[in-house]
Fold this protein.
Amino acid sequence: MSLNILSVKDLKIEELNHLVQEASSEQHSFMLRMKAEYIGNKNRFNQEGEAIFLALKDEKIIGFVGLNIDPYLEDKNVGRVRHLYVQTDYRRQKVAQALLQQLIAKAKQHFKILTLRTFHHEASCFYETLGFTNTPMIYASTHNLTLSDEDYLPESFITKIEKGLMVDGH
């Protein structure tokens, strides 16, 4: 399989309709939410350090992942993996790994920590093979990856605890 990972600045959202539809049929609403937020200009992945990565095979988009400043924290040092999805026919072929490797390389240029949230055991195991730690220590996340040598804890984590906003790690 000839796989290409592209970073795109301006997404033609209609080119992801097949992924959105497939994800929705699998009861995954996150791709539909991503599409709505993109169209509504709520999340265009265009702030400093943010990016969109597409996996292409024979010029067909087969995977998607976004990198945002973590929207749950008020901290520009924390990036967040958003909406990783690979078309069913291409799973277990290292497409998600290739997408995440590109995302991590980009994230290292801008962020000290990378977060994500998943409640699926299989996804949790996948992220852990890439070095993510399963820990609820950062608000609204299940996993994080340290990107710098600096021992860093987001200020907003402490702030949210002080405000009583952190319950069971979220």
